[in-house]
Queue: 3 jobs
Job 1
Amino acid sequence: MFNRKLLGGFVLGICATLMVMWIYRMFLLEKHVPYAISINVTDSMLGKVKIKEIVKDLEQTESTIEKINSVSKRIDDILIFGGVIVTLLIAINVGVYIKAESEVEKHFKDNFEKVKEKVEKRVNEIEQIATKAQIEFAAISALKEKVTMSNSQSTNQ
């Protein structure tokens, strides 16, 4: 039912999407640690949390979140357009398949009688050849029996 190349394309597309998502997560998201984790443990233990560093970290975190949201929106757009393209390709393949099926059915209906007549003609020819071969076989068998009988009579005398 399914074309193996089409199924392979789907699997390859899914693998490529998962790989892009994994690379994005490993190289872009892991570098940006959330604000709650970015405060040093030693500073908080000593009670010397530096306000300037917290503000700086907060600004970096906000800009990072904006960048991540922007990239996320772009990836969403790409995935949506990719989905639309894949859907259109599937629709085209289905349309071509249905058209080819209807063309074959139409051709079969139009040419069925011609093909049937050709097949019947060939069957009649083959039957005539088979009948002729049976007659010749019977004649050869009868001749062979006569020769065998005459040889046996001549040897007996």
Job 2
Amino acid sequence: MDAEGIPANIIQHRSSTQFLTEKWLRNSVHLSTALPTRYFYARHHTHQPDSLTQLHPRAGNCLFRADQGKPRYQCAASQGPHQRSYSRCQGPLSSLQGSATFEEFVVEISTNPKLAYSTASTVENAKRIVGIFKSLSHADPKRVCVKIPSTWEGLQACRILEAEAIATLATTMFCMEQAALAAAAGCTYIAPYVNELRVHFEQGYVDGSKGFEFCRQAQAYYARHACRTQVLAASLTSVDEVMQLAGVQHITIAPKLLGELSARRASSWGAPLGAYFAQRPLDNWCETTDCQTILGDESSWRLAFTRSGFGASEGKMIQAINYFSDFQDKIEDLVSASAKLAT
């Protein structure tokens, strides 16, 4: 299971009814080649944690189904074999259709991870995604936030997109070199991973170098330098990890952990709630790093990133991009197979 998503704020606002919904591709889910991405998330202000909607399978006519009954969400290809394919992709969520309009959602959606090392291609892909959502609704485009891998090229793409009022989230992030460059690029959010992605795919694997200190360090850095970028902690595996992050600006919680969290009283947490983030980071990154040099020079940044954690940070990012690229390949195969069946 992927461990990213959109800000839930449930640590700072425990009475919130905002739920993170997340769904990995299964055999019953089809995505259009018009939107080449692995998955998407939606936050919805209801008590329905599975109110995730689907996308129509036809290339060029991708459909975000937030309200089944509204004509503007209908697709020209909703008849014939495409309608049958669409009905199959509804799956167990069909009973929730019509529960909300698109305007009530905040959506985060990833660019094609195989474009992670191309600024121009990532920008083009992101604009294509946002254009699709704009064609579906007159809602504020800021309700769509594009997730982009935190490579040098990806973060330069974020800089371009943010300058054009497209919200971005820098993902696959493991170190301050990435976090500082994301802030310089003007990203709306970063998603620092507490655990490397491997923990969600390899049973029994434990990340021996969790990113709690990185989350705290990034948030302190942003506050110190008055950055607009906000921290959205991600890749969590337990309620204890969630509780330790109390005080972070935003946090992503998978449905399983959200259920466990709702069943646990805050008073049962052994340490004072928020104590970890109330403390200063152990290290002031800028005091030991020539920030201006590495942020303004590509080769300097690449070397600093490569040396971060003696290569561990870059290795974790490369691993994450590989996982996501594998899923991208699978979805492209799935779409191709679906298109053949529909013709």
Job 3
Amino acid sequence: MKYLLHASLALALLAAPAAAQDEGIHLPSNQQVGFYWYATDGAGFRWDVTSYGTINDGTNNAYDGAMQMRVNGQYFNWSSSGNLSPDGREVEIGPWPAGSLRVYRRLYIDPKAGYCRWIDIFENASGTAQTVSLRYTTDLGVSPQQMVTSGGKGAVGADDWGLVTGRTSGSYTATVHVWATERAKLKPKVTAKTGNDNVYYDFTLKVPAGKTVALCFFEAQRNSYADAEKFLKTFRPETELGSVPPALRKLILNMGGGSTLVLGSLELPRNEKHDLAVLQNDNELLGQIVNESFRVRTFYGTLDLPAARVVGLAVRTAGDPQVHVALTDGQVVAGEFVNGPLRFRLTTGDVMSLSPADVRTAAFRLDDARPEKIEIRSPILELRDAQRLFVRPGELDLSFRTEYGVVRLPLEGLAGVMLDTPEGGLHNAVFTNGSTLSGLLEAEKLDLALPSLSAKLSAPREILRAILLPGDEDALREEGLAEIALRNDNQLLGQLADAALTVRTGAGEVTITAGDVAEVEFIEEGALGRVNVKQHSGSTVSGTLSGTAIRFRIAPGLELPVFVGHIRSLTCPQARSAASQPDTQPATEAAPPAGGATKGPVPAAVEARRLGKLEAATEIEAKKAAEEKAAEAMKAELTAERLAKLK
């Protein structure tokens, strides 16, 4: 019996020659930026990137320096310009020399899910292997009062791959930290504690002679601790790595590369040349799955699945009697493997019989019939046990009880309904434009045909984790939408459906047309409907709204009367026509990158929201002074290191 590779050898083979400049490993140098450079992610959070490859402040003082990197005790130090990607979303700095290594840092600001991704590249141009000590330090803006790991614990353990840190009170930004995938062979030692504003990752990294390796990390910012928990719970690093060029993706050691099929919470490691089985003891086998069919007894019937329909199977936890089978169309079914065992022919020709108790995952090799990524074309019922089942869209009962009455959620513009929420309470309807609306799915029982499986599902609503609608995963959020921030942390994006707002003031009523409204602050204290309405002209009207609701359209066919007592703020970007744009800009000046990346000042309305709940101005200035002092200290330390070398 031959097993694939020892873990350390597997990591070495993932490396690539440092001299080979595979397409996509580095950004082209035809577009460059100076520093500081910043961009806004798809969730509206600011990332101010320094020439060290760190985040200076983030949004609302989330950081005091995120992802500082030391190589063998020396801070990564780069004082030149950086290369900018054609879409303006990613910057690369380096090469910085660290002994025999050349080190690069790539930072990508995501315009959809809302995060910052680091890929740090280590090239060893020497003829001998290099072992380096790495320390990453993220200095948070304030000391966290609470934290939770990807495993749901309050302290980081060996099996964790991510962490949420935040405060229990105040308006401080919560942060998410992701340092690996769940089954990555290389993970750092992570040090994080409540009451301490530093998060540390420590690695011992081996870079073979003449090879290149990379490490990948994610950080995300959210307005509330609950939002950050929700992000971590649903975040799949492997999925997000799908947009990374294959040549670079293969170098990443702590994220399992990119050869993993992700379907909901099911992950199947795969190989390009052979079928791959991963055993419960962590051994890996290469060869061929020889089963001609898979008979699975589910709670909705027994399914006979020809091997041609199957991508792979997984046993999610050791001893689990259920086998999860992933299909080529993106469905996942689960039940007893009736016609087992799994028959696996090794590359030596030997055939093994593997029971579900032996196997963690088994997957067919990548090919045209079983590609790296599966495009979903039908609505999916995602069950709490990780099954994913197709249903007909016309049979879904999407009646949804909200604070504003029962509405029927439209299929157009709806991304899905999340029933397994972190708090275990209300369900969340999530729209493609970024809106989230809390409520309860009315249907208490599911009676739905499963047409592609020739079966019928009849079960209580409680088995559902989510209802997911197919859509363009690469579509960017529409710009120029009005935004309502609710006091329950919901966010509604769309258009004002009221033609105007009427405000009663001491001097009489003032009517403000919807197009003139820039921002409305709803004052919680005092009478219902007290507001400050800022207009695009710069004028501000204070008083009491006439009426108890504002009509708001968040998707085609869905218009809500939003009770004013539930609203924290309303922001309406000014509509701009092509004819109103100045034509005097230099021809060489590029338009702002998509998704909010900018090189100029942040728009006033966005900046106002960003600073809305900060401390007094004197405290902000004190924080800035502390940051400058820390930067000077870092500079002094680097200078001392250089002088020591000269001696």
